[in-house]
Automatic annotation (TrEMBL):
Enzyme Commission number(s) from the entry: 1.15.1.1
Chain ranges of the Manganese/iron superoxide dismutase N-terminal domain: 25-106
Species this protein is from: Sus scrofa
Catalytic activity: 2 superoxide + 2 H(+) = H2O2 + O2
Gene: SOD2
Keyword Mitochondrion tagged: yes
Names of the cofactor(s): Mn(2+)
Classification via Pfam families: Sod_Fe_C (PF02777), Sod_Fe_N (PF00081)
UniProtKB keywords: Manganese, Metal-binding, Mitochondrion, Nitration, Oxidoreductase
Protein role: Destroys radicals which are normally produced within the cells and which are toxic to biological systems.
Designated name of the protein: Superoxide dismutase
Subunit comment: Homotetramer.
Length: 243
């Protein structure tokens, strides 16, 4: 989809990514808690490797590919621009997804959401338990690597559950605004839960930061977007607008 969008019109492509020339490099965000804060549900070793190695790699690779993309733009090399798009999508998506994921978790999390979010969940899924079962099933059922998501459909004003492969960003792929993401890549759980993904899903509900999920929800009738800081980068807008 990225390739089709880029090839259709260089006029649309350049403004979307033109900000890359003046941008600051992406940086790895600090976690809002210690690596061991989510134990026993997610151990410190997993959190340290996941954050300082895996997420850091997405950030570093994103900076590299954006530099190459900037050079291709300056040269007017459309072939190189198209060739770089899978790496932009993968590493940009990895940075976006993980920046959301860390804030979706909290050592004081778990339980049920409150207020309008809980009412919206009951309206759109029947009950909180039914919602929990559905998102768990979708996340466990991801073939290979990917993410399970709770998203907000702006057009319908309703919550929806979706799965994305690899590091495909939810909004760029489906149009849904990301509220809650569950990483089901093996690096997110294998050192603790081995190949038993359902056990990891059962555990992660104990550390879901419902306050953060609530803050990300877009109330019906508004246009306010609540994202992590990477929402302001040109790549994020590009992935949303062209996929």
């Amino acid at each position: 989809m990225l390739c089709r969008a880029a090839c259709s019109s260089s006029r649309n492509l350049v403004p979307a990514l033109g900000v890359l020339g003046s941008r600051q490099k992406h940086t790895l965000p600090d976690l809002p808690y210690d690596y061991g804060a989510l134990e026993p549900h997610i151990n410190a070793q997993i959190m340290q490797l996941h954050h300082s190695k895996h997420h850091a790699a997405y950030v570093n690779n994103l900076n590299v590919v954006e530099e190459k993309y900037q050079e291709a733009l300056k040269k007017g090399d459309v072939t190189a621009q198209v060739a770089l798009q899978p790496a932009l999508k993968f590493n940009g998506g990895g940075h976006i997804n993980h920046s959301i994921f860390w804030t979706n978790l909290s050592p004081n999390g778990g339980g049920e959401p409150k207020g309008e979010l809980l009412e919206a969940i009951k309206r759109d899924f029947g009950s909180f338990e039914k919602f929990k079962e559905k998102l768990t099933a979708v996340s466990v059922g991801v073939q290979g690597s990917g993410w399970g998501w709770l998203g907000f459909n702006k057009e319908q004003g309703r919550l929806q559950i979706a799965a994305c492969s690899n590091q495909d960003p939810l909004q760029g792929t489906t149009g849904l605004v990301p509220l809650l993401g569950i990483d089901v890549w093996e690096h997110a759980y294998y050192l603790q839960y081995k190949n038993v993904r359902p056990d990891y899903l059962k555990a992660i509900w104990n550390v879901i930061n419902w306050e953060n999920v609530t803050e990300r929800r877009i109330p019906q009738g508004t246009n306010k977007l609540l994202y992590c800081s990477v929402s302001e980068c040109g790549l994020f807008r590009y992935l949303i607008n062209t996929m």
